[in-house]
Design a protein that fits this description.
Number of helices: 10
CATH topology of the largest domain: Aminopeptidase
CATH architecture of the largest domain: 3-Layer(aba) Sandwich
Bound molecules: zinc ion
CATH superfamily of the largest domain: Zn-dependent exopeptidases
Helix content: 25-40%
Strand order of the largest sheet: 9-10-3-2-1-12-11
Number of strands: 26
Structural class: alpha+beta
Amino acid sequence: MKKVLPLSVILLIALIVPAVTATTVNVRKIPDGKSSTVPAFEKNGMTYVSMPAFAELAGFKHSQSVFSNKSVFSNERGSITLIQDNLFYRVDTVTNLIPYPPIRKEAALYLPAPYLVKVFGAKHPGALGWNAHTSTITVNSLKYNVLSVSGEVKQNGTLISIVSADSLSYECTYYHPNVAINFDGGKLDPKAVKRGLRAGVVDSAFTLQYGESAQVSFILNQAVEPPYIEYNAKTRTLMISLKPRIEQKKPKPAASQVPLDASLIRTVVLDPGHGGKDPGAVGPTGVKEKDVVLGIGLELRTMLEKAGFKVFMTRDKDVFIPLGDRTKFANEKKADLFVSIHADAVGGDSKKRSAARGYKVYFLSQAKNEEDKMVAMRENAVIELEDKDKRTNYDALQDVLISIAGAEYLRESQELGIFIEQSLMTNVKQIPRLQLGVGQANFWVLNGAYMPSVLIEVGFISNTEEEKLLSDKRTQFQQAAALSEAIVKFKQQFEGGQ
Ligand SMILES: [Zn+2]
């Protein structure tokens, strides 16, 4: 028996619902150019797309279990499983994480477009791309969508051109000497960049395919103005203008303006990640992140003490320390530097695990690309292990802390990060750089540190070869030596009047 709702109730519902705006997005097929639309809605500034509608256009079969709110999408390559309101999803049997869970609207599950492209990209034979400006998802049956990178010298600077098969969402970051452009859903043609591309201010160019996103980065030989970017839809070319910066001599602050203790770097807090009930990432043969990073931390303490620093450690044995307590500790000790040490990991099959390797250095800031965000999420997942009553509303807190600590020490944190990155590159040759540049991500452990702060992922413990290296005391010693050298160099530069 059906009950009919009175009209007034229906009107009321109609008035309440529009907090979520119904819309559609375009799905464009490449290379044939055919376009269709699928249902979508806007929520919290994100475009949620109907997964079943998209899946059908992209050639996936869909089955849904009403009772468990689970949706399975499959094709000849395998299956993808998502659950309503759940951050975890599965590709075949491997569990992965997305920053936003699927939401149900009527019978279908909806996912924000950038993550939909990422999730389905794992099983789609070609490249999927999302462009927020045109609300278009491209379903490309070609294997690559980032096709070529070139540079030319113009009268007033250097022009970089990146040609793609379709228009992709991109994000450009510039921290001298690195300019990096990240494409969500980008699939790099391995031949896109001729090694050693060199033009004007660009000394060299590099590419990195990382899961469902692609990065093209450049090393510059001189500082430039903030890059100016323009997209030509007709030629599908992203053009990046790099104009050399005209140096303006800044007056040095008078010595009296700088508080005495702020101009010296004496106290360092070392923070080996995880510990106790939280092992951190665990390698294929069982090596634990918490043990590796403690080994490096203890070596580093000895070295820094020899170099005249006062060193405190958030832990010098195998104990669990809540994330919030780590930065609190650093503030209490009036540390001048905060150095957090971690090891990275990826899930997936053995091919994926062996592909991911290398170290990366992060400093406190808002994450600028998806991969940095994922690393931050994984490292922050330990919050789940902490006592419920100790947890605060950390999303809201983060923003406040970033605006206080971040703005003040961003530059120093980044400089320290670059020193560490370079020192690891020259001193620990057996573990490569994961990618160019120093990443920005808002790690919880760094939030609330009122001092220059960095987090180092010393390598991938999920990679068999690096797991072995990381557990080796000799590598740990080398890594500690590299960090110590960078910290000494940073101190010299910082104190030598910038
Ligand atoms: Zn960690």
